[in-house]
């Protein structure tokens, strides 16, 4: 998942002008500006600094570069202080630093019109059974921005199946709905709708924990639908939840369960994991 972030940096003088040069003769300080695009541990620095004739990058991991716009591969996740040194034509040098945080990356790309990237996902894998109904297989992955779901089920896109995602977003048993459907979870958020039918709504739990009481939330763009493939009666689809849009999803853990229902709510089609089984735990501490 590629992220692009702009950085405008405060300039810190790193050298003193040679005595005897008048202020009029001094070259103006370089104006440091660059953008950062991350793709896993590979980071591309696009330098848009003006007023400089030479550059030196300190990537914060012991490596450096004198390229204007380098690409650097970091050794792993973590926080790195990146410093760009820019030298003006008169030798005057300024520097600007920023903090780069690299976290877990997912191979899933919702816009590639393919589901092949899920072959490399092993974060959470669930196999269906007779007790899970239409659900045959599911996978889950995450990065700093999204939580990704892959569902494989016996159905057809035109059926308009309704999905209910029960989310224990704060991993706190004292808040949220308690239900025998998915023990070891207290569900703060309910997402419900016919995702393939173009609607999916968000609700937050209110009131007593034993009460099925949820309030609708008006939050746009909290989910994204990716590739959908139909092969006979086998439906395969991917989607993502945007972590910054849903209460609690910025934390380090998530418990969830999913229920599929017919488009008129008359028939329960499947439950994942098996009904009355502990909810699925997604560890997002990386």
UniProtKB/TrEMBL annotation:
Keyword hit for Ubl conjugation: no
Name by which UniProt lists this protein: PKD domain-containing protein
Organism this protein belongs to: Catalinimonas alkaloidigena
Domain PKD intervals: 47-91
Pfam families referenced in this protein's UniProt entry, alphabetically: PKD_4
Keyword flag Signal: yes
SUPFAM superfamilies on file: CBD9-like, PKD domain
Entry keywords, A to Z: Signal
Signal peptide: 1-26
């Amino acid at each position: 998942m590629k992220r692009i972030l702009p950085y405008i940096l405060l300039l810190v003088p790193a050298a003193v002008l040679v005595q005897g040069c008048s202020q009029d003769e001094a070259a103006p300080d370089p104006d440091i500006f660059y953008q950062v695009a991350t793709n896993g541990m590979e980071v591309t620095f696009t330098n848009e600094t003006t007023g400089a004739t030479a550059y030196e990058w300190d990537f914060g991991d012991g490596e450096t570069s004198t390229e204007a716009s380098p690409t650097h591969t970091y050794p792993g996740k973590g926080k790195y202080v990146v410093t760009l040194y820019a030298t003006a034509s008169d030798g005057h040098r300024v520097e600007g630093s920023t903090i780069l945080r690299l976290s877990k990356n997912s191979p899933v790309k919702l816009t590639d019109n393919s589901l092949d990237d899920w072959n490399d996902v092993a974060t959470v894998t669930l196999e269906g059974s007779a007790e899970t109904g239409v659900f045959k297989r599911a996978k889950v992955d995450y990065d700093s921005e999204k939580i990704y779901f892959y569902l494989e089920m016996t159905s057809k896109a035109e059926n308009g199946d309704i999905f209910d995602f029960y989310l224990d977003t704060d991993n706190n048993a004292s808040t949220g709905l308690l239900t025998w459907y998915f023990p070891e979870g207290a569900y703060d958020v309910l997402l419900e709708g016919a995702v393939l039918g173009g609607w999916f709504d968000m609700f937050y739990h209110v009131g007593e924990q034993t009460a099925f009481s949820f309030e609708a939330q008006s939050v746009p763009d909290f989910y994204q639908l990716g590739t959908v493939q139909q092969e006979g009666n086998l439906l395969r689809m991917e989607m993502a939840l945007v972590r910054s849009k849903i209460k609690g999803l910025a934390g380090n853990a998530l418990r969830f369960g999913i229920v599929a229902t017919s488009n008129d709510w008359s028939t329960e089609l499947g439950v994942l994991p098996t009904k009355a089984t502990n909810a699925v735990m997604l560890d997002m501490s990386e």
